[in-house]
Design brief:
Chain A has 433 residues and is an alpha/beta fold. Chain A is 36% helix and 7% strand. In chain A, strand 6, helix 9 and strand 7 form a beta-alpha-beta unit. Chain B has 12 helices and 14 strands. The chains are: A alpha/beta (433), B alpha/beta (353).
Chain lengths: 433, 353
């Protein structure tokens, strides 16, 4: 019997004493990690229902784990997307590029070139492989760790770095926190920073596409922690009600800053299982298996395009690094988790698969990594010509007041004059532009 | 099609001008915009087949189809959230929030998303939505059907806040709001949907049909956002007000025989500061009247602006008449409402100083 605080109503009663369950992750710093409780399914064992099946037919898949790549580095079963080697090499190159980019930007933040950065190490497949399964003009509403989509869609590295540096070349005019990209040209929605707000927006975009008789679909990404936000449930409800052509990707990377997935409900059921209650299709996929991610996303895209409705995909993965440059995960989780993660590393798995197919080798891989690092380095140098954060090369002050409204109302005209006046007081001799 | 703009002298009154109540005027504005612009869609709780709990969307689904006018789940977060996505696609959504009191679950989508989207994407994406919502008290709605939360929205950079006070203005302002490329909060004073309200709640209600401002031109016309309306010219004092309180202020001034200049602000953001300054500098006295709670209400902003800009023209301190800083009480509604007694005493004080 638990200790009972004095003076509680339960005293003197024979009713069972209530106790509050506060979730606790299995491992904390210093603990030895054993992930044997994670149900790692056998690749190829999971059935692949018809893309336009009744949503309830997918219910078993929400508790399963769709996997394609086996320990033998071969593709197995009905979910094998049967991609040609050239597409696989392209995917691998996107992986390598994102990793090189992350490494450089992380270092740039540590060198003081910007205030903030977020890596996606270990989660590359959840954005790149998924994006490759969509049409290039399908609209994506990402969260903050989907730089892989931009890389896969061929967005300019220099533009990305300009944004990260908030410099005078930043087409978002230095207004957004680093990595909160936006590129309409790449059908990539402006990243908010407020969590899960993009999910009903994606549903709304998909509804609009359906209202207009368009053929494009929408996809959104949200972390497992953020599925606790009301927005996510609104999104699921609207997606279900209007049978919206949308894919809801839940990236379950186990950690929301320091809160493990249990604080979003993972101790009770899977995130994919949320789909069942809404009556929408659901798939739980090995997020570190690039082929499985591609196959699941393509299945959902085909389903949406066929007017068969939305799909919720849980990408079961692991956040191998900190939440951001402002985070130190060694303070709250065991450093061994990343090494012990039973589903491996997506880059490594794809590389080994290509080698097993006889379509790749270590030399080419090393050369590719080097080429990516060089390309990122060159882009960084190019972007640095536009300045780095806090070194003066930013957009003119007046731009601070633009785009609040389409036209400047009188009060912003006045405040804009005030801002410029303050600069003149501070720098009476004028300041180099 | 020509764009007509209005002034208080009302050049629009022609043979084609009919008398409508505010609901009919709003319904007509929505009907016109659905017909003119295929990107306009209307959604909200009960707005489709049923036509809205106040009938503002009556007949629109039948006329324009189920994918243009449709019901939504009871989820204000979802309604505003999908409207942001629709705007990103290129639609011009006009969501209805059934009561302003219900808008709060949608606040994050309004404040952090719709209002900031143009800014954060440097114009790549916009949220050209008009959120219609009945607001204000005087209908025995209790604390959850009577609130006036306009100051919350006026405080947010990137949102426009519009409040009509007549059928004529409701139509022209709503059309302007829908065509505006920024998100607009369009609060409809539900106490005056069916008739102007003098504030003398114990007297018979007048229908709009007998009021001069119920003359509503046919067809398309716009009233620009950011232009106040001079309800009546006067010399003794300036009354700054909007919504239901326009009519209450007018009735009280008439009853007291005060030669007040009454300004119906019509939009809080953008605000017609020019009209305010001109009037207050002329009269030297300024009374602000709104139904919303007092502390940090929009009246505080108006008071500050008038003091900052017209101080040397003022003969007396700026005064505010507002609702009390309590929730809207059901049974004591008329004790809460800033009615003739509260306004009358403020006028007396302002003229005495």
């Amino acid at each position: 019997m638990a200790d009972r605080p004095e003076g509680t109503a339960a005293q003197g009663s024979n009713k069972p004493v209530l106790s509050l369950h506060v979730p606790e992750p299995k491992y904390r710093p210093g603990d030895t990690v054993d992930f044997s409780h994670i149900g790692v399914t056998r690749p190829g064992d999971q059935p692949r229902p018809d893309e336009v099946c009744h949503a309830s037919e997918t219910a078993p898949l929400t508790l399963d784990l769709v996997r394609v790549l086996g320990d033998d580095n071969k593709a197995h079963g009905p979910w094998d997307p049967k991609l040609d080697p050239e597409t696989l090499r392209q995917m691998l190159r996107h992986f390598a590029m994102v990793r090189a980019f992350d490494a450089r930007m992380y270092r740039g933040q540590r060198q003081g070139k910007t205030s903030f950065y977020m890596k996606c190490t270990g989660e590359e497949a959840t954005s790149i492989s998924a994006a490759m399964a969509l049409a290039s003009d399908d609209m994506v509403f990402p969260s903050y760790r989907q730089q892989g989509i931009l890389i896969a869609r061929g967005y300019s590295l220099v533009e990305m770095i300009n944004q990260i540096y908030s410099n005078r070349g930043d087409k978002l005019k230095g207004r957004q926190l680093p990595i909160m990209y936006s590129s309409r040209e790449h059908s990539f929605f402006s990243i908010s920073g407020n969590l899960a707000t993009q999910t009903p927006q994606a549903v709304g975009w998909a509804m609009a596409s359906a209202i207009k008789g368009d053929s494009r679909i929408a996809a959104t990404w949200v972390g497992e922690g953020s599925t606790a936000e009301g927005d996510f449930h609104s999104a699921c409800t609207f997606a279900a009600v209007y049978n919206a052509p949308v894919i809801l990707n839940v990236v379950n990377n186990q950690w929301a800053i320091s809160s493990f997935s249990g604080f979003a409900g993972a101790e009770r059921t899977t995130f994919a299982a949320r789909a069942v209650g809404y009556g929408i299709a659901g798939i739980r996929v090995d997020g570190n298996d690039p082929l499985a991610v591609y196959a699941a996303e393509r299945w959902a895209a085909n389903r949406a395009r066929a007017n068969a409705g939305p799909t919720l995909i849980e990408h079961f993965t692991y956040r191998a690094e900190g939440h951001s440059t402002s985070d130190d995960p060694s303070q709250y989780r065991s450093a061994h988790e990343s090494d012990e993660w039973p589903l491996g590393d997506p880059v490594n798995r794809l590389k080994k698969h290509l080698i097993a197919l006889g379509e790749w080798d270590e030399e080419r891989h090393a050369a590719m990594d080097l080429a990516c690092a060089e390309e990122v380095k060159a882009a960084t140098k190019e972007a640095e010509k536009n300045g780095i954060l806090g070194h003066g090369l930013h957009h003119p002050f007046a731009t601070m007041f633009e785009d609040v409204f389409e036209e400047l109302p009188w009060h912003l005209v006045e405040q804009s004059k005030q801002a410029i006046h303050e600069r003149e007081v501070k720098f009476p001799e004028g300041r180099p532009k | 099609m020509s764009v007509q703009e209005t002034a208080s002298s009302d050049p629009l009154v022609t043979e084609e001008t009919r008398r409508l109540n505010m609901i009919e005027a709003i319904n007509e504005a929505l009907d016109i915009m659905l017909a003119r612009d295929p990107d306009v869609i209307i959604m909200g709780e009960d707005v489709g087949y049923f036509g809205g709990v106040f009938r503002a969307t009556a007949g629109l689904q039948e006329k324009h189809g189920k994918t243009r006018v449709f019901d939504t789940p009871i989820s204000e977060c979802g309604i505003i959230g999908v409207a942001v996505g629709m705007g990103a696609y290129g639609l011009r959504p006009v969501p209805e929030i059934q009561f302003a009191d219900y808008i709060y679950p949608g606040l994050d989508q309004l404040i952090s998303e719709a209002a900031r989207l143009r800014y954060r994407s440097a114009g790549e994406y916009i949220a050209p939505m008009t959120v219609r919502s009945p607001f204000g008290g005087g209908i025995f709605g209790g604390q959850t059907h009577s609130q006036s939360p306009e100051a919350i929205f006026a405080h947010v950079s990137g949102l426009k806040t519009v409040i009509p006070s007549t059928p004529h203005d409701a139509k022209g302002l709503l059309i302007a709001a829908i065509e505006d490329n920024d998100p607009v909060i369009f609060f409809e004073p539900k106490r005056i949907y069916n008739g102007p309200f003098s504030g003398y709640y114990d007297k018979p209600v007048e229908p709009w049909k007998k009021h001069r401002d119920s003359k509503v031109p046919e067809g398309y016309y716009k009233i620009p956002l950011g232009k106040a309306r001079i309800v009546q010219e006067g010399e003794a004092m300036t009354v700054l007000t909007y919504g239901t309180m326009v009519h209450v202020a007018e009735a009280v001034c008439a009853a007291k025989g005060v030669d007040a200049e009454i300004l119906d602000l019509r939009t809080l953001v953008p605000l017609d500061i020019e009209a305010i300054e001109k009037s207050v500098k002329k009269t030297g006295r300024c009374l602000i009247v709104h139904e919303a709670t007092r502390t940090a209400g929009f009246g505080a902003e108006l008071s500050a602006l008038v003091t900052e800009r017209c101080f040397y023209h003022l003969e007396a301190p700026v005064d505010r008449v507002t609702g009390f800083d309590t929730p809207y009480p059901h049974s004591l509604e008329w004790a809460y409402f800033p009615g003739p007694v509260r306004i009358g005493e403020a006028i007396d004080k302002l003229l005495k100083d």
